[in-house]
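Please, structure for the following, as tokens.
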Amino acid sequence: MSTTTASAGATPAAATGFQPANLILTTIGLSLASFMQVLDLTIANVSLPTIAGNLGGSGDQATWVITSFAVSNAIALPLTGFMTRRFGERRLFIWATALFSLASLLCGLSHSIGMLVGARSLQGFVAGPMYPITQALMISVYPPHRRGLAIAVLSMVTVVAPIAGPILGGWITDNYSWEWIFLINVPIGFFCSFVVGAQLRGRPERLEKPRMDYVGLATLIIGVGALQIVLDLGNDADWFQSTRIIVLSSVAAVALAVFLIWELTDHDPIVDLKLFRHRNFATGTIAMVLAYAAFFSLSLLIPVWLQRNLGYTPIWAGFATAPLGVIPILLTPFIGKYAMRFDLRLIASAAFVVMAFTSFARAGFNTEVDFHTVAMVQLWQGLGVALFFMPVLTILLSDLAPHEIAAGSGLTTFVRTLGASFSASLTTWGWGLRSTIHHAELTSHISAYDPAALETVEALGRGDLQRGAMVLDGLIEQQAVQLGFNDIFHLLGIIFLLVIAFIWLAKPPFGVKPGAAPPGH
């Protein structure tokens, strides 16, 4: 049973019209906090070898620097609604951002892998509510007719931060030391916490004292934790050939099944799955998860392909992928201002057509593709990204009640994060599988009894047949990997086109409901 304990007048209606003392300063504080949190999802990736070497850990142990953050973050995300009801959005943002800064400090001061993994776990957990709460607060401080601009700004952050992460992480590690990829968060986080707290002082909020759903919490932690570990370790452990993966998968399946049944039947669940009763929220979330999973996969595969197949350094791979963020930065103000004048389903459909087109373009790449071509395709994909996030987010939030925004945003971010993890593991596995198949097909056309083939092998080895065979196998492997890459991007292009169908299941209008308070209260 929940009991309302808000102060007098602290209702959604009472919050209507609240404006911070300085809207620009509030926007900077909220956006910077969100950027910092999303950035930390990828900033440590390129520094793992250095971290492992400095702290005396193995490569597998260093991987837990990433995994521990992801597991804790995935567990905390769906709890956003519960924590918002209990503590209020302003207070939750202040404490989550401040604790994120403290956890970042502990990461930078770590003197062992174990301490770093523990600090990253804390960092991931307190980071969980930051993006959903930032989104709810951002929407609430803007007037209804400028709601699209608020969502567009956060959409730009979501796109640019993961791209900037590896580049910034590599630059800091090369020029300073790995500790600073975490320590840089400390002043930024405390600044955001102080600014937003001061600007939103006096903001009315709806507070409750929901009872703790211990069964839901326990099954969520066990199920999501086990599933995230399976996704992170599955490729290296050869999936279901590993007893550990089988056991963890079984635990995840049972725990999540109990979690779903319990949450759907409990009177006061810790995660409100009943939000999916809203048509636009359900269809918009499905579209967001599928499209973001495909987007996350291509963002993951391209830097790896550039380094593995084309010989790029990490920094140059970052430069080749960076143009993706150019168009979103330029178009964000215009999309936020004018998008609501059009049918958002049309804008989202255009986004997915562009994303599909660029995926099909990559499906035609070969090992001779130059830097300019790679960068230009990234640039054009940025147009699709610019048109993607704001319309889809607006659609999925459009039929939620104002006090459901934070919970809905947290739930969507949670399933989006899980979808990205699934996609990353499956596309990496699929790339390897298709590469192996293409390798077998290419070698099947080479006969040891073919004089021309023997002559080619001998030429490659400069008279040494054994060395020539090794060189030829390397060339075949490179082509097989490229063909596997092309197959994956052809599939991603098809997925982007299929997502369009879900967008058109949503029902307008997609703006703020007449007479409703600005969302987020």
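Residues 1-16, 512-521 have pLDDT under 50 and may be disordered. Residues 405-443 form the longest helix (39 residues).
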